[in-house]
């Protein structure tokens, strides 16, 4: 028969460890909320309580001298419906912090009361450090099993208790742990008879400490199962379950959330999630790891040169040492997401196609990358080099691949007199410059000129170009409108 305790703490509190922020090791250690008595605010239930079917008499076991008659037998009445609160022994008395107690029916009412189930519902999964059970006016349980569950459905043994070491083998098929219980691992399941002795006859205590020294657990538990067997009746005055919120070493406090009515980790170390179980956006330079007493294992910010808000961790990038961290070292595997200001690359350290970073402008500069602005007629692509030089088609030159050269493929500069020309453009074969009208230096007449295109050279009537305001300025510039005379 299994007894179950399932629990969560719902009350608000300040759950803080005594951390000294002046300690130089403070920011490098794991952070843990205070260990609380989770049972005090849990929901508790049982499958059997004395007096449920009417008043029943019970007598305490008392020590006496063998061979002499028993005097002053201490007998009482248990009645769930009694007007006298002292005759009521509900299961809630086991966790209310008073001297009241819960009591099971006597086995004289049926052998089924050899096995009693108690359920403590914590309503939230916690890290449990210890469980302490204090008996009231009866001896401690004999053979019983403490079990735990995460989901309240599937239970696993936490510890076995037996009347004798022999019972550990015959009843549970487990080698007994002789003497006071010791543990080789935090998750070791043992059988002990140390806390199942008949003496003392009342007010005995059953402690279960689930940690070695102070290794911070640990066991996750939402459900704990008790198997109580082989006593005249059972009584429990107090159940204490010491535990803390599961924050994986990344929170010092765990106050009550007024909306969810659950204790919520106040995450630090750049961690997020209900249990601080993941790194916050933008802090994935290294993989998430739980904090320990010796190492905080903070999540580290990705180095995106202020050009991205989020990133992700890539182990292959880390192995290849291609991601630069915030210290300028290639340690970690953070890859920036959605780089802004026309940047690209693992660390947003490059410019996107069609953009370049001016000389002496650092990655972190707020200006980012600026457009190449290459001529759509004179360049082979929208891209340019780090100095803003576009990649020009044959016969065209200049930073932006604009006109200003003649005699392809030699591409000789036009060398026009800028004081009397519209721009430094000229006839592609004759070198005739385009003059400004009424400059006083020369007079010009309308010519026709061939403009380069993706298919070769097309004839364009310069007069039509000037009249058609729908054409782009770059197309107009390709025409030599005037000739000096």
From TrEMBL:
Report the domain of life of the source organism. Answer: Eukaryota
Where does the record place it?
Secreted, Extracellular space, Extracellular matrix, Basement membrane
Q: Which Pfam families does the UniProt record give?
A: EGF_laminin, Laminin_N
State any GO BP term from the record: tissue development
Q: Name one GO cellular component term.
A: basement membrane
Provide the Laminin EGF-like domain boundaries: 372-413
Single annotated GO MF? extracellular matrix structural constituent
* Domain Laminin N-terminal residues, every copy: 27-334
- Could you tell me which SMART domains the record lists for this protein? EGF_Lam (SM00180), LamNT (SM00136)
This protein is called Laminin subunit alpha 1
Source organism per entry reads Malurus cyaneus samueli
